[in-house]
């Protein structure tokens, strides 16, 4: 089971939809999050992409020297980036970070944003272009010289001089809920990511992608993108969830939902359907809360509870085939510590995070004695 964290390059704070308690997301703050995630034992961290975010490649590159083990899940944008340029960027990052690059393939779902970036492709055409992009990207990073006369991409004798450390190329992650997205995942990617839908819906998506991949003679791993609100008790966790949206008014929710509805993303449509813009039915499955999706695009659900409860819900997803959990929480620096302290001890092999794994003393020394360590739950 891998657990990733998140870099909030679009902003961070204590309350959704409010400037109260907001934090300035500058390089110092991102470095604090990176060092925390690295030292606490998170396996990697996702960096979002889009016009409302700092550039993910520049951000990730700036954080390489601040970390030792943390892997960076960084977006490539077919239809906006050329595949050979993206391949050179990936190879350089992978080499300079000594193999710590993971690649998130983002086809895009907001036509307004895509038009601003010069992409006018329809929904299904974006996935066609992504397939051609990945043929070239994967080929040149594997050491091949690639020529392609495609519908969307045309290259002749494309190659990359400096190969990546990861073989044959840095692992490809991808999320999408439409038929076209599932076809792309089945043919090309290593890890299919779903947003945090109820387990029965996640099971259907896993089964579908597995079946499509089998027709290509391939297997695919699976991950899930969720927020997490973990506290010392279930009651405290639900109180924290309520507090996160306490500054939201109905007008802000309505305006956010109107903006999100313009996307032609099937995943975004499914996220919106979970709550319908209403505050009164936000627990959509046991300990799965849709409140974040009232105003946030993309991943809009959170696991809520104490450490054992959240670990139990994660295990239910793991039994469906999920092996990677990409988490986030508000504010991201504080919540990284809470997850490590309250959730990690209940996950297999996690113990108390990096401090315990390194064998050093943990906790305050009281009267010249070390406090006894808590044993990790199995």
Automatic annotation (TrEMBL):
Question: Which Pfam families did the record assign?
Answer: Bac_luciferase
Q: Catalysed reaction per UniProt?
A: an alkanesulfonate + FMNH2 + O2 = an aldehyde + FMN + sulfite + H2O + 2 H(+)
Which keywords fit this entry according to its UniProt record?
Flavoprotein, FMN, Monooxygenase, Oxidoreductase
What the entry lists under NCBIfam families is as follows: alk_sulf_monoox, PRK00719.1
Name all Luciferase-like domain ranges.
1-323
Q: Tell me yes or no: is Flavoprotein among this UniProt entry's keywords.
A: yes
Record SUPFAM superfamilies: Bacterial luciferase-like
> So what family is this one in?
Belongs to the SsuD family.
Identify the species of origin. Answer: Vogesella aquatica
Q: What does this protein do?
A: Catalyzes the desulfonation of aliphatic sulfonates.
The kind of enzyme this is, by top-level EC class, is: oxidoreductase
Gene Ontology MF annotations:
monooxygenase activity
Query: What protein is this chain from?
Result: Alkanesulfonate monooxygenase
* PANTHER family xref list: ALKANESULFONATE MONOOXYGENASE, ALKANESULFONATE MONOOXYGENASE-RELATED
The cross-references to InterPro entries, in alphabetical order and at most eight, read: Alkanesulphonate_mOase_FMN-dep, Luciferase-like_dom, Luciferase-like_sf, SsuD_RutA_monooxygenase
Its domain of life? Bacteria
Q: What is its EC number?
A: 1.14.14.5
């Amino acid at each position: 089971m891998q657990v990733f964290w998140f870099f909030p390059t679009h902003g961070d704070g204590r309350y959704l939809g409010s400037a109260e308690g907001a934090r300035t997301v500058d390089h110092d703050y991102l470095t604090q999050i990176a060092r925390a995630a690295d030292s606490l034992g998170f396996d990697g961290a996702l960096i979002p992409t889009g016009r409302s975010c700092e550039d993910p490649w520049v951000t990730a590159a700036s954080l390489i020297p601040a970390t030792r083990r943390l892997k960076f899940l960084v977006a490539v944008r077919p239809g906006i980036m050329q595949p050979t340029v993206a391949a050179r960027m990936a190879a350089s990052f992978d080499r300079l970070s000594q193999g710590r690059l993971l690649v998130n393939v983002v086809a895009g779902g907001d036509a307004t944003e895509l038009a601003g970036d010069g992409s006018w492709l329809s929904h299904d055409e974006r996935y066609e272009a992504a397939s051609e992009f990945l043929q070239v990207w994967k080929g040149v990073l594997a050491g091949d010289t690639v020529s392609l006369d495609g519908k969307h991409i045309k290259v002749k004798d494309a190659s990359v001089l400096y190969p990546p450390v990861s073989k044959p190329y840095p692992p490809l992650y991808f999320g999408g809920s439409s038929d076209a997205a599932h076809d792309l995942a089945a043919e090309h990617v290593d890890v299919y990511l779903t947003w945090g839908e109820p387990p029965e819906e996640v099971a259907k998506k896993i089964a579908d992608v597995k079946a499509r991949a089998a027709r290509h003679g391939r297997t695919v791993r699976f991950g899930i993108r969720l927020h997490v609100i973990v506290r010392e008790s279930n009651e405290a966790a639900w109180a924290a969830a309520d507090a996160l949206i306490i500054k939201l008014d109905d007008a802000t929710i309505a305006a956010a939902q109107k903006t999100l509805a313009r996307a032609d993303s099937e995943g975004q449509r499914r996220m919106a359907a979970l709550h319908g813009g209403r505050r009164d039915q936000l627990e959509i499955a046991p300990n799965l809360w849709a409140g974040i999706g009232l105003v946030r695009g993309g991943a809009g659900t959170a696991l809520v509870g104490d450490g054992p409860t959240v670990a139990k819900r994660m295990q239910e997803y793991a039994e469906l085939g999920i092996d990677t959990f990409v988490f986030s929480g508000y504010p991201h620096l504080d919540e990284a510590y809470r997850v490590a302290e309250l959730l990690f001890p209940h996950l297999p092999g996690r113990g108390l995070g990096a401090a315990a794994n390194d064998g050093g003393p943990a906790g305050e020394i009281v009267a010249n004695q070390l406090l006894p360590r808590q044993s990790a739950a199995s």
